[in-house]
Design a protein that fits this description.
alpha/beta, binds iron/sulfur cluster, 21 helices, 506 residues, binds cobalamin, TIM Barrel, Rossmann fold
Amino acid sequence: MKVAFINDWNQHIGLQHLTAILKNNGHEVKTLTDPRLFDDLYLSIKPLHKLFDFKNNIIAELKEYSPDIVGLSVATPYYQWACEIANLIKSHMDVTIIIGGMHPSFVPERVILNNSFDMICVGEGTAAFIELLNSMEKGTIDYSIKNIWFKRDSELIKNDIRPLIENLDSLPIPDMDVFKDSTSFFTNSYVLLTVRGCPNNCSYCSVSYYHQLYKNKGPQFRVRCVDSVIEELLLVKSINNKTKRIIFNDTNFGFNINWLKEFSQKYSEKIKLDFFCVMHPVSIDEESIDYLKAAGCKSISLGIQTWDEDIRVNLFNRKISNSQMEKAILLIKKSKIDVLLDNLYDFPGRNEEEIIQYLEVYTRIKPTRNYFYRLHYFPKTIISQRAVENNWLLPEEYEDSLDGLELRTLRYDRNKADKTLKKTTLFKKMQILFIIIDIVPKSFTKYILDKKIYRYFPTFISPLILTIIRTLTVLDFESRYFRAIFFCRYFHFTKKKFLSLFNKSK
Ligand code: B12
Ligand code: SF4
């Protein structure tokens, strides 16, 4: 069968898995890229996006390729993009479209109502997609394939979920060709996972919903063996010998200390590339830091979210103490590895004193970089349910998130709108301090905090613009990575657009 996947500019691990297994089973696969220039969560300029839109190129390529089925894969913030592409395809050609990935897996009952999607893959797709293609090849679709939801005339067929793949090492190494048109490739970076799922259950995190989705379907948190990770990386190096950065985007890299010890030995011997990883602060101690350092780790990202223990434990369901987090950060700093912290702002109960608490901690420990995210209400998360129950979010606002429309962020008390506005302005001013806290002297931050000078910061200084300026100017591993991705993406795809316009005009 001929399969076409449409992807944005990101490297896509799920698609790499799918295309690997499809090719192994004799199917033909093509991946088309929509780089979404001037049209993403960071930079959206409508007239420029229209000028550099690749959707018509995709339609032309699809018509030429003439696939039997088109596949899309999306997280919630990309769902509306997928709908737009699918509608456009349906208006140009008669082809079956299937959608999978996190968003359709979480809200299949919603996604199946969209006329442009003929089928949905709920949960893991490798085995299900092969079964589907094999049945299509035989000329009769098998409507009982587990993990796939179908439309047959006016009937909706909602099949059950199959057990999870227990042994991740039984899967083929992810396909490397599929990401050759992703910016990761041009920037010589490679993103991979050593685990799937997460043992924790943080209330705001989409990954936690897997515990419900896969209930009684086997252990949700699974770890690959070190050898399979090394094999994947050796292949990456052989395909792109310019590869210089490895990104372990795990939920919990190095969760198991024996795994980390083995990884450290093999990685430093066979791969020898700088790497970045996402860890949980509980996994950081003297021993794990030694292994990470020896392996060549340059940067570690930790989820902090808040220094208010009550909110962290009771609202966010993150079972870790302030002292454990502080110890982890200081250990990483001591080993001269960059430490990047993810923080959340914009949640109920947040007040000036609590933010001062953050600022005092960061004045003392000075992480390499602080990132601030608004807490989004993703579909089916525990916090979204609490938000609707507590009137932090209106039911219709939650409904919007199910369609990947505007992702609302937590509000304060709806009945005190004027106070909320004042609070938001104050938090915006305080954020400026967060962004510069690691580059200004401790005495400066202390003075500003003691005298509450931040209250007089001008409102025209935008935290977002400041963050962009910092990312463009600093030299840490993460900022270099983002800069490279941004520039390479725009350079590669604007060139491609001009070339296609030039060829057309000839
Ligand atoms: C690696 C990763 C990235 C990487 C790679 C992206 C990617 N899509 O592979 C990078 C850094 C680029 C990235 C970017 C983003 N990410 Co991200 N990312 C992850 C992470 C850590 C792992 C995802 C993964 O690879 N899982 C393993 C693969 C094998 O699973 P899978 O993709 O679901 O695919 C399987 C099935 O879903 C199914 N399937 C998937 N697609 C299809 C299609 C068809 C046709 C079929 C049949 C089956 C099928 O089959 C696959 C194999 O079994 C998760 C957190 C987590 N631990 O899950 C967050 C996560 C998915 N990301 C998230 C977000 C928000 C983003 C961004 C929007 C961030 C941003 N602000 O830009 C972007 C979106 C980019 C994009 N186009 O996906 C959220 C999504 C939340 C939500 N409800 O949507 C998550 C859950 C993080 C979190 N905790 O909030 N991400
Ligand atoms: S936030 Fe991190 S630790 Fe918590 S459930 Fe999500 S992936 Fe796991």
